[in-house]
Amino acid sequence: MMLEGLTGRAPGALPLHAVRAEGLGIFADGLPAAAAAFLRAAGFAAKPGEFALIPGAEGLAGAVVGIGADDGPWAFGGLARGLPSGTAWRLAAGPQDSAAAVLGWALGAYRPRRHKASGPAPALLEIPEGADAATAVMVAEAICAARDLVNAPAADLGPEELAEAVSTLAARHGGTCEIVAGASLEQGFPAVAAVGGGSPRAPRVAVLRWAGAEDGPLIALCGKGVCFDTGGLDLKPPAGMLRMKKDMGGAAVVLAVAEMVMRSNLPVRLLVLVGAVENAVSGTAMRPMDVLRTRKGLKVEVGNTDAEGRLVLCDLLAFAAEQSPAMIIDCATLTGAARVALGPDLPALFCTDDALADRLLAAGAEAHDPMWRLPLHQGYDSWLDSPFADLSNVSSKPMAGAVVAALFLRRFVPAGIPWAHLDLYGWNDSTRPGRPEGGEAQCARALHAAIVKFCRVSPPPQGG
């Protein structure tokens, strides 16, 4: 996709200086006396993300932005929309991480455009030369494409359109995509079919396969793709339903990760599963206390029709496990309980493998895309017991909702396969530098970074 805010060579581009607070005095000493006096009078302190224009004899001579010690992207996230509209800038030599600067600038320039007329043009940043900057552009493109999916109104993005997005992605990068629907869906993914049975927009599962190395390890990514969630017959209140176009945020995240992996040409095989459904209200919708079949063979009693995401994921996880992957990672906007525990910015990580968990947590910290591990506490597993089926889709107690949801999903993953579950929010409630209000591909950058490191630590075997 075309990114706003970035450009190639721009004649006349102004210098953008990055400065840490401890280096501000030296930087100011190198400016003309009038410009240095201007910065001091303006109270510029080089706090991370703080920026100021630098005056010159002909008008505007440049700008300076404060950065922190962590070299993160967010210090640059407010510049595309904060510097004068349409101006062009180049990174001056300094202590900044150029790739982080490009990423933060591009993510901050993003605005949803599907149904909104263009506003003021962002300031433009020249893309520096080098592979790291090119990778940052690639990552930003994948994140912004995922944001577009989450921001799309449900009327525009139903199960068919979401599955088509998977197919388009596969075709663009030399992969394959199978769309499972109709009788094949009812047979192979019965829980997904039950969740989508109340909507006139038929459910489907998109299965993307791609190989960066024919003998590479298989990584399975599963995404919850509930294009709109009314709650079903256990109807959500209006406030709870307001943002439910974002309930396919997990699918958007795994598609962003897949795009980054494929464009990086990593030596792995990918299996990406998206359960694309709408949880609607009608005479054909699943009912409370219905007992559903699942792909794994377990029977699930529907304790609440609004706990539909785990029903979608359980069939995807069972299918993924049948392929004997090196790991399974699922992403879902699954529970409000995770948000109560960790707030909107920290996705909850549940994991059956400590080495995989450590890799994901470290990658999240390094990529400034954090997550927080919560326990798969075995003592709560019995809360899923049902007198009428193998298990219920909800807990018998009003506590630890995110943990119990993860325990439900764990029933569908064999013990020998490393599995990580990310319960995320997928939304920015308000605009912050680099993170405009609306859909967000949380954990996508962290997952890509973790897979890159996995490839370095565990290279695939070499063919003869």
From TrEMBL:
Q: Which domain of life is it from?
A: Bacteria
Q: Which InterPro entries match?
A: Leucine_aapep/pepB, Macro_dom-like, Peptidase_M17_C, Peptidase_M17_N_1
Pfam families for this protein: Peptidase_M17, Peptidase_M17_N_1
Q: Which PROSITE patterns match?
A: CYTOSOL_AP
Q: Which GO terms describe its cellular component?
A: cytoplasm
GO terms in the biological process aspect are:
proteolysis
Keywords for the protein's UniProt record, in alphabetical order: Aminopeptidase, Hydrolase, Manganese, Protease
Q: What is this protein called?
A: Leucyl aminopeptidase family protein
